[in-house]
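R.M. (postdoc): so does anyone remember the format we settled on? I'll just put the structure tokens first.
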């Protein structure tokens, strides 16, 4: 796991830390081990988990399903970030399909699915705002 301190975003705010768990998609839940389950389940100040799903796949992989099941069992709110949308033709259709698949499986999913592209810088500002709202640093605009 990699920890990134994002500093204090507003005066008197707690330091925001982003934790990256690279490679979870290449391993099964058993290989993640008890450490990650304990880490996620034991973080009282954890505000949300963002599960990154490759838009090229267009559906949930087994490891995505395992992660979603773990979020449900730990009762952790989580959001879906659909990455690499610059590589697909019909972003709206893939977002709708992934949304439906996740909603059918998950109790703690917080919509909407967030489509992004690092290459095109597509919707990155929306993702950043979503993170700040999830952390309670910024109030929702609605």
């Amino acid at each position: 796991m990699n920890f990134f301190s994002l500093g204090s975003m507003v005066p008197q705010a707690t330091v925001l830390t982003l934790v990256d768990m690279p490679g979870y998609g290449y391993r099964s839940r058993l290989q993640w081990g008890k450490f990650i389950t304990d880490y996620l389940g034991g973080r009282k100040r954890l505000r949300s988990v963002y599960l990154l799903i490759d838009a090229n796949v267009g559906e949930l992989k087994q490891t995505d399903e395992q992660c979603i099941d773990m979020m449900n069992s730990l009762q952790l709110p989580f959001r879906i970030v659909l990455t690499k949308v610059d590589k697909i033709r019909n972003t709206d259709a893939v977002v709708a399909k992934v949304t439906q698949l996740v909603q059918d499986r998950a109790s703690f999913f917080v919509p909407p699915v967030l489509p992004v592209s690092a290459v095109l810088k597509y919707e990155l500002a929306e993702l950043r705002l979503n993170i700040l709202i999830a952390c309670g640093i910024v109030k929702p605009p609605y």
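R.M.: ...and that's the designed sequence above, right after the tokens. Also worth knowing: The first helix runs from residue 29 to 42. The two ends are 34 Å apart (CA to CA).
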